Amino acid sequence: MKRVLYITQKPHSPVVDGGTQAIASCYYLLSRCKDLELTYAPICTPKHPGDFSEVDQAIRLIPLRIEPKVSLKVLLESISYPMNVARYTHSNAASLLQSDDSNNAFDVVICDGFYALSIIPRSWFTSKHVIYRSHNLEYLHWKQRATLKPWYLRWFYNRISRQLYALEQTLVSASNEVLSISHEETQRLTQWNINTRTWYPRINSKQALTEHIVHEKRIGFVGNFEWFPNVDAMKWFISAIWPIVLKEQASVSLEIAGKGSEVFNNPSQQIAGIGFVDSLDEFYMRQSLMISPLRYGTGLNMKILEALSYGKLVVTTSTSIQGFENKTPFVIANSPSDFAKFVIELLANDSARLNKEAEISEYVSTVFDDTTLLNQLEQGIHG
Fold it and tell me: Per CATH, which fold does 207-367 belong to?
């Protein structure tokens, strides 16, 4: 019986963004692993306080309540250490974990997300089996953010990126095993740690909900608009692609869901920004196809995974699907003219769209099978 400590950089519930969606997937599979005692330690902040009402009583729960303020001490340390990480490491999280370990003596520590990895005691890298689940290359995420910032912030973000690069390489190299949710980033992470492999999040298939549904022509996009790539993607699509689509398909409408999407609401252009939606079942049911016109991003796009779970066809940029090894289920376009052309053709050709959806169904059942993912996780824990 292995004693496993599972640390997450956000609570697994409620699922409010791609990060929590990925964590919820791992939490679900861990709760079904055999021969282990599971302790769950989510990092909880005012922004992500967590909902633990449905945590199984067999799982020990240790919420790590942190208020990641930028104190004077953090500012001084940021001269040589990434400020965004120092906000977490200057908390009492590490001491709480060490105290609990003195009573439970964990065999395996799974760190879900880079900030979870950054708070564990450094001695654990040699005394325990540390598994790092990488959501993305954190230094690259900040490097991309820098490109969209005003000049006076660009230098600051690039400095954080450089500091993160050194720290990320150190912590990844020290881990016993790395599970990357992105196939493309697996190749980069392997250069730091040869015990790296791709381990995708699970898909809770909901395709049956959308079968045989007759609807008007609608295009859908789901995203949290506190995340800068989603804002850029929608601005680009609406300005450069949507007018071309409307010219050829005058009856089509665009529906955008997610926190902050109300800003894009424009009935005169047949665009509905409907805001945060508690349940997306009905939203996906009425979409003819989904779009993902992201031009920035790292890791695996969890909203693409969500669309696949509903059996929906996605017209996407290469950036949006960079984390997937097999890209054949997707319709890929990187220029406004190509993107618009594929959307127009698929709206006009029901047969082609249905054939592609059948291909997606086979892809999901093959690559994202629960049993396979569970076996891979158990293998990492038990050896």
Answer: Rossmann fold (3.40.50)
